[in-house]
Amino acid sequence: MGYYSMLMIGGRIWIAEALCMAVKKKEVLDEFSSFVPWVESLKQSAEDVWRKPIAEGKWSLREILTHIMHWDKNSLEVMVPRMDEGAVLLFVDIEEHNREAEVVAQSYDCLENLIDDVVETRKKLLELLEERYEDDLKLTIDNEEYTYKRFVDIFIHHDAHHRQQVEAFLKQERQV
């Protein structure tokens, strides 16, 4: 009888831990997905200024969105598929990757098409993350320990940085 009780208690603890991990995963991926409605809103708010640099020597909205999409593609095609327990990975050369994104940006002549591609890429990445995300998985990227949460958090902060830049730029443009 005591052995059975211990299993039941252990079972309940395991269920509680699994629920907690599922909640963490959902919170992280929900935050990462919040980028989608924001970027879709730019179709209406940025059509007239999407090619204008946000400041002297800075990218335009076109380059910023392509830059984010290019990182999402790298995560989708290279990083996340290889993120297994104990994996040892490397991020791409950041400067080179950003230059590639700048070139890709020049191929877009329509803001709506760019936003559609950005959203499609992010949604595919979110689907892959939903499939593969494990809270307790540990791997190494550029000689540092990572979890899925840490990996996704980098891009949540990356999105927030560029979102702030874009929103400040659009606010400034509306005041002119």
From TrEMBL:
<feature type="coiled-coil region">
    <location>
        <begin position="94"/>
        <end position="131"/>
    </location>
</feature>
<dbReference type="Pfam" id="PF12867">
    <property type="entry name" value="DinB_2"/>
</dbReference>
<keyword id="KW-0175">Coiled coil</keyword>
<feature type="domain" description="DinB-like">
    <location>
        <begin position="43"/>
        <end position="166"/>
    </location>
</feature>
<protein>
    <recommendedName>
        <fullName>DinB-like domain-containing protein</fullName>
    </recommendedName>
</protein>
<dbReference type="InterPro" id="IPR024775">
    <property type="entry name" value="DinB-like"/>
</dbReference>
<dbReference type="InterPro" id="IPR034660">
    <property type="entry name" value="DinB/YfiT-like"/>
</dbReference>
